[in-house]
Amino acid sequence: MKYDEIGYWSEVKLDIVQKYASAYSTIMRASPVIRQHIYIDAFAGPGKHIARRTGKFVLGSPSNALNVNPPFSAYHFIDLDGGRVEELRRVAHGRSDVKVHEGDCNRVLLDDVFPLCRYQDFCRALCLLDPYKINVDWNVLQIAGSMGSVEVFYNFMIMDANMNVFWKNPDKVAPSQAARMDHAWGDRSWREIAYTKKAGLFEEIEEKVENRTIVQAFQRRLHEVAGFKYVPDPMPMRNSKGAVIYYLFFASPNKTGGEIVADIFDSYRNRGMG
Questions:
Q1: Secondary structure of the chain in the HEC alphabet?
Q2: What are the φ/ψ torsions at residue 149 (nearest 5 degrees)?
Q3: Which domains does the chain carry?
Q4: Could you read off the pLDDT of 118-143 as tens digits, one per residue?
Q5: Rounded to the nearest 5°, which phi and psi values hold at 43?
Q6: pTM, full prediction
Q7: pLDDT score recorded for residue 95
Q8: Quick one: pLDDT band at residue 241, thresholds 50, 70, 90?
Q9: What is the pLDDT confidence band of residue 89, given thresholds at 50, 70 and 90?
Q10: What are phi and psi of 174, to 5 degrees?
């Protein structure tokens, strides 16, 4: 099994998710009305990584979730790679509360997992969506937001978007790349948000806006279109050179969850490179 090497900010993300998962599970277990609370990892990986700084193994998000106390009622781990799926099954060996799925998370979530998390069944879920590219369909976020029972951590992969979609000249962007953004954004409205027009020498020209403008628009979209009531300011997550790779969003139907994550984000937001 070839394990991914991860940098400082990936370790920070693992810490953030684990801290909130622990608080979330404690709150859900104490509720007199919640029948079960589910942990979902949609890009689960093999369960551990190698820290670039030390060369040592660090637990991945599925392993961290399995160590949360009090435990979740059930766990659903999803990965597209068969080798990682087999490793996850070894990690979860003997755990009847764990289901490992092999396949595209966009399909697995909508067809197999979200139906288990219905509000009217007094079920709740915490879902981690941390892709390496902009390949989560907006429909997944839209459905999660409409359910009222699912809270989401989501990586908005701004570096992938900048490299392949948000070019200086948008007319040169490959149709296939624009289509990827359509799926991730939910429609073509990103085109008007990502560019502004200014007067040129002979005609109007388009310029790409700052990343922050795009990210704020996506934050509003999670709230106003997907229907999540609480979407704190996202965490910019960086590489070793300080460039932002993605923004870590949290979206929730619950005020308490939003406030807890906002506090966790703020505790990490101004840290150095480690």
A1: CCCCEECHHHHHHHHHHHHHHHHHHHHHHHCCCCCEEEEEECCCCCCEEEECCCCCEEECHHHHHHCCCCCCCEEEEEECCHHHHHHHHHHCCCCCCEEEEECCHHHHHHHHHHHHCCHHHCEEEEEEECCCCCCCCHHHHHHHHHHCCEEEEEEECHHHHHHHCCCCCHHHCCHHHHHHHHHHHCCCCHHHHHEEEEECCCCEEEEECCHHHHHHHHHHHHHHCCCCCECCCCEEEECCCCCEEEEEEEEECCHHHHHHHHHHHHHHHCCCCC
A2: -125, -5
A3: 5-157+214-269 (3.40.50.150)
A4: 999 999 999 999 998 999 999 999 99
A5: -130, 65
A6: 0.94
A7: 92
A8: confident
A9: very high
A10: -60, 140
Residues facing 36 on adjacent strands: 123
The rounded distance, in Å, linking the Cα atoms of 47 and 58 is 9
Before 236, cis peptide (omega within 30)?
no
Structure tokens at 214: 């795009």
Rounded CA gap, 146 and 42, in Å?
19
Higher per-residue pLDDT: 52 or 228:
228
Classify burial at 128, counting beta carbons within 10 Å of its beta carbon; exposed 0-12, middle 13-18, buried 19 or more.
buried
CB-CB neighbours of 259 under 10 Å: 13
* HSE value, Cβ hemisphere, 13 Å, CA-based, for 11: 18
Task: Give me the mean pLDDT over the 218-231 stretch.
Answer: 98
Using an 8 Å Cβ cutoff, are 136 and 104 in contact?
no
CA distance 15 to 13: 5
